[in-house]
User: Fold these one by one.
Assistant:
Number 1:
Amino acid sequence: MRDSPAVRAALLRGLSGLLAVASAVGCYDSTAGDLEEGVAAVVARPELPPSLSTAAFALDVDRVRLLLVRQPSELMLDTTVFFPADSTQLTVRLKVLLAQPRDQLTLAMELRSGKQLLFSGSSGFEAIEGSNVAPVVPLQYVGPGNELTTLVIEPRDSVLKPGDIFTFSVRAFQGRIPVDLFYAGWASSDPRVSPVNAKGTLKAPAERGSAFLRVVSPTGVKDSTRVWFSPPPSAIERLSGDGQQGRVGDPLPQPLAVRVTAADGLGVPGARVRFLAPFGSRVQDTLVITDSEGVGRTIATLGPVPTLYTFEAQIPFQPAVTFQAIGLPGPPVAIAKQAGDGQTAPAGQLLQPFTVRVQDRFGNGVGDAEVTWEVVAGGGAVSASVSTTDPTGRTSVTYRLGPLPGSNAVRARLSNGESVVFASTGTP
């Protein structure tokens, strides 16, 4: 629950008192002797939600309300029993005057913290003259936050040094709407080694290891996160991913990997590693939590420019490690005329070269790309039917005009179908 003045005091007491009190509510005093004629004894047996037995809650129950109804609607008893919140036992004797030897009754029970209703439930039963009856009353949580749908522990995937004491927090939501008032109980997957109290305070053991920290609402909504116990990080080293090359705009073939170690040389699990990418490029995760071996990985994606890229990985108070990667142009997707279009010369004459530039999707020149050349009008001939681009993405051919005056056309085409047409005119 958020630490507001209205509920702060309620958070200071645990659930152990509630369980003991609730289990004894309505217990019949066997020393009272035999029951009078026409009377039965009722011993309430509350049944709390199963989620309450899995964690340490801070529920402050200080009163029990009992309602006894003769079916269908005759109210026989409505009483509230007060007791100190730290009580461990409570005895309530209920003697019921029956209207007939066998009477159909309903017992309702409410557990409250001051005026705040926390649990309620009811149970129908048959009371027999001169006998004891102990109906089970299943209780449901109806207090603050009973409609919440999500709990979130913070921080997540954390690491504590041996002997550290840390108090975790929890947030609640109903759908996407934050819930301010709610109860939540805490539990540890290994309570003997790393116990947690009802406030979410956990003490790290002296040995390395890990535990799952869990939180649950009285209605059974849950969340968990892993807590690592390790000495603090003292070094970060590059494991793999350096010296790669890849096409611009694409992820590198291998992830960037580092290992974080402590002073004892062993890996630090749960350490936070921040990866940084140069301008135009990116990493899949800028903040990575190391695994059980102290290793953190992320995928790097190159920017749009063919150049040398330098990525970094860092932890607080230690020098960063770097990864270098070469960006290569992407596959050819476009072709553009560079020179030679629109010439005019006497028919049959050799023209100035036709030059094209092949580009990737970012406009970078693509080397070693094949361009197919063909005459599509006017006749004549090109110097090569296929040419290959240089490192800047350019390639050229020469063209001799057809033998007759008129329009001439030559097409340059990529394998994906993209093409350009050079037009020229032959004069008499």
Note: The radius of gyration is 40 Å.
Number 2:
Amino acid sequence: MLKNFIEIVEIRGREIIDSRGNPTLEVQVVVCDDDGKHHTAIAAVPTGALDLRDGGDRYNGLGVEKAVMNINDRIADEICGMNALDQVAVDQKMLEHDGTPNKENLGGNAILGVSLAVAKAAAIAFKLPLYQYLGGFSARSLPVPMVNVLTMDTQEFLIMPVGAASFKEALQWSAEIYSTVKAKTRELSNTDEAREFILEAVEAAGYEPDTEICITTDSELREDPNVTLVKINEIGTLTETFDLISQAQRNGMNAIIYSSDSETEDTTIADIAVAVNAGQIKIGSLTGANIAKYNQLLRIEEELEDVVEYSGLNSEVQ
């Protein structure tokens, strides 16, 4: 029987550590389906601009216990009993309860954590992968990874394997080029030298610049009027994130799913990228917490099997 009401029965937040050793939070949501079965999901939140921090001496003022308390008390009181399938209503309820433009009351980190965990719990209750629950049958396109292979003066240099035949191959190419770059040592004084250095590494790894591997920088992406950088940790809810992506795509803009500089092992952004058929995803270098997202995309590609598409073959990235 098709489930039409999945009740949110428990919400609990906790303070955890991000990839830079700073505190962030995760949210555990328990839902109950029509058959009385309980399902649990956990979502961790990357550090973002809308975070509510404690101040004081603890964690040098970066603690998130206030946000956790808001989850366990104020948000739980508002959200428990609601239908987890009605993501828009859940997110709207939290925004109304917060009542500020920048989520200063409850904290953007608290609101985002609950929003993501509710969606993940609903997907588990339906026994669906998160990307399929969010995107339906059309969610089948794997994004081009934008891999940071070099950082110079806060400038990130990104490679994009647009010529690969699959995400698996794209990740292989990226890893080989990344290793080649790391194996070389050279003093670089400007962005032109850095770009030339990466071009040499691309060729040394056996790939062709431009046709197989494109190179860009994070500043070039921010300056491109045809690009929308989608950072869920700076938006606040899953509903607002999807609204932003839909608006960008309707206006013919390229919506790039963009990770935070301080991440966790949570892989939700990988599922979101596939759910909305985003052409590109910028996760970062092939290290640390980023690996979990890359590996999740590999799993998704394998699950999709014969219906999977890879955005690189039809990419319009220049």
Note: The chain has ten helices and eleven strands.
